[in-house]
Write a structure and sequence with these properties.
Length: about 600
């Protein structure tokens, strides 16, 4: 019996009913990916870039597998998973997913963070189950139908040509100097603060190389970066006016206050009962204080640790500098702990979390610390208050002093309580924080519900920080041994980005108010010089500490101290470009601050 002729195929699937339903669902999911991914990115070229990659990936799979359903499902799962992961990470940790995260953060750190934020844990578990399941089903329920109407020879030719063409399309799209060059020129920090999630993740693969600042040929290299002996006391010289029998050099305690800034810098924060705190106010023991220029906003505490330990700004090294504990810490030649070692100090770190977090234990070893006290060993966690940390510090400090006698100590301690989120319902907070502190509508002295919630949480936690710092000052500065205490804010909190909406009081000098926190340096002895109130970049904190402690500086920190004075506390934003270029040439190309 004659059969009816088979209609010509267009190359698109001719499927049974179940297959058609699945294919329709895959198309809808693919369209949703395009709508919420490429079409929602910040600029048209980023939209075109990510859309091109997704479309090319689907076509490449179609030519390789001849399975339309699978070819739509795999890119949807892959790019959709990246998009969702980046959205979640941005929401909870204020930074999107970047390529180096796959190398540096996919470890026990990820589990620690996921346990802190249950939605992240749920998303990880769901992805681990759903994505493989859907891909297996898409493969099993699909059949090689693409190009089925062609003869085997022509099909092989079409697949070869199509595969090469789509690979070429992907190669051209991913070429940093090709038609999408503009998307590769955006810096890492801008990428970490905008919402072009797919583009930023893909282009970040090209932004992981550490770059040394280039030699500035037109710099004034006649500028001397070596201090006179009078400004750099010889090793072992007494730094204090304490009587004989007391250690010559002071103990140095540095406290990094997580996500902390002086709230009076906010124009709206004028209520003395909740905005003004003792820890930000100078007194008779204050030797230096003021606004502190930091290098990150809303996150990235480890870069502030790096700046304090090395006198460097991670931004000097390109986008890869953001991962300083992994790729910069092993390469630094000059650090604050190493200079202090030369003066006879023992350096210890008191860390509020696991030492595995962001490679902290290894980084501190590279910085030159003798001992690292892991917060988990002392029962510390994300919820630990500053008072909890001070109590742990006191136990460790007293034990160290008993064991090491008159040997001076350098102690680096980090707090954690101000880390976000700041979203505890106000009714659960003690008075006066249990109600909106700045209520009302359309008033210069009011905030919306979201900012009242976050700022209320911040100010309530700050009250605890202030009490803890007062106790720490009493313990250390009232002791009969010389002591230098330096505490500072590592960056401003994010409040899910809303912090930028709060108007701030800028200091007299130019700068971005979003990158200002505070620093406070006190001693229980009279140093050779007091510095008073002045704005300062965090990169200059180590040389300031060495100056006030009276510790002999090496060549790098002599230059660091001179740069601090010559540029009035500014570093990369120094307006005296010849001075900045000369300094960069000296520290990077003469002293080789970073080795290979």
């Amino acid at each position: 019996m004659p059969t009816s002729p088979t209609p010509p195929s267009t190359g698109f699937p001719s499927l049974p009913r179940r297959g058609k339903v699945l294919f329709a669902l895959a198309l809808v999911a693919f369209a949703a990916l395009l709508a919420f991914g490429p079409l929602s990115e910040a600029t048209w070229i980023e939209c075109a870039f990510s859309a091109t990659l997704i479309a090319a990936a689907a076509l490449l799979l179609a030519f390789l597998t001849r399975r339309w359903l699978f070819s739509l499902t795999l890119p949807t799962m892959l790019f959709g998973g990246l998009l969702i992961a980046s959205l979640i990470k941005f929401h909870y940790l204020t930074t999107p997913l970047m390529a180096p995260d796959l190398v540096y953060f996919v470890n026990r750190d990820l589990l620690d963070v996921a346990l802190r934020y249950p939605p992240i844990l749920i998303a990880i578990v769901a992805a681990a189950i759903v994505i493989p399941t859907l891909l297996v089903l898409a493969w099993r329920w699909d059949r090689p139908r693409f190009l089925a109407h062609r003869t085997p020879a022509r099909r092989r030719t079409a697949r070869s040509v199509g595969t090469l063409a789509t690979l070429g399309m992907l190669g051209i799209a991913l070429w940093p100097h090709g038609p999408f060059a503009a998307v590769f020129e955006k810096g890492m920090w801008q990428a970490m603060n905008d919402k072009s999630f797919l583009t930023d993740f893909i282009t970040s693969f090209y932004q992981t190389e550490v770059v040394i600042p280039p030699f500035a040929a037109d710099a004034d290299n006649a500028i001397s970066w070596t201090q006179a002996d009078a400004d750099n006391p010889p090793a072992g010289s007494p730094a204090t006016a304490h009587p004989k029998g007391v250690q010559a050099h002071p103990d140095i305690v540095a406290v990094l206050e997580e996500s902390t800034y002086d709230p009076t810098m906010l124009r709206i924060c004028t209520r003395a009962d909740v905005c003004k705190r003792r820890m930000f106010v100078a007194d008779g023991r204050t030797r230096a204080h003021g606004p502190l220029t930091v290098h990150v906003w809303g996150g990235g505490t480890w870069t502030s640790e790096f700046a304090l330990m090395t006198g460097l700004d991670h931004l000097s090294f390109g986008d890869a500098g953001l991962y300083a504990p992994y790729n910069l810490a092993p390469r630094v030649n000059f650090t604050l702990p190493r200079v202090l070692h030369e003066a006879g100090y023992r350096a210890i770190a008191v860390y509020p979390m696991s030492g595995d977090f962001i490679n902290a234990r290894n980084a501190y070893k590279n910085y030159g610390f003798d001992a690292f006290y892991d917060g988990k060993d002392y029962g510390l966690s994300w919820e630990s208050s500053d008072n909890d940390l001070i109590q742990v510090f006191s136990r460790i400090y007293d034990k160290e002093k008993q064991a090491n006698g008159k040997q001076p100590l350098f102690v680096m301690m980090l707090t954690l309580r101000q880390h976000g989120p700041h979203m505890t319902p106000l009714k659960k907070l003690p008075a006066p924080f249990d109600k909106p502190l700045f209520p009302g509508k359309f008033s210069p002295k009011s905030l919306d519900e979201w900012l009242n919630l976050n700022l209320g949480n911040y100010l309530q936690r700050l009250q605890g920080s202030d009490i803890a710092m007062t106790a720490l000052e009493k313990k250390l500065l009232d002791a009969d041994r010389p002591l230098l205490l330096f505490h500072f804010g590592d960056h401003q909190p994010s409040f899910d980005g809303a912090m930028r909406a709060l108007e701030k009081n800028l200091p007299a000098a130019d700068g971005d108010a979003n990158f200002l926190t505070y620093y406070m340096l006190k001693t229980n002895y009279k140093p050779a010089r007091q510095y008073g109130e002045r704005e300062m970049d965090l990169s200059f904190a180590p040389s300031l500490i060495l100056d006030v402690a009276g510790v002999k500086k090496d060549a790098f920190f002599q230059a660091n101290a001179l740069m601090r004075e010559r540029c009035d506390g500014f570093y990369l934003n120094c307006v005296k470009k010849p001075v900045l270029d000369s300094y960069q040439n000296y520290v990077f190309h003469h002293l080789e601050a970073l080795h290979e």
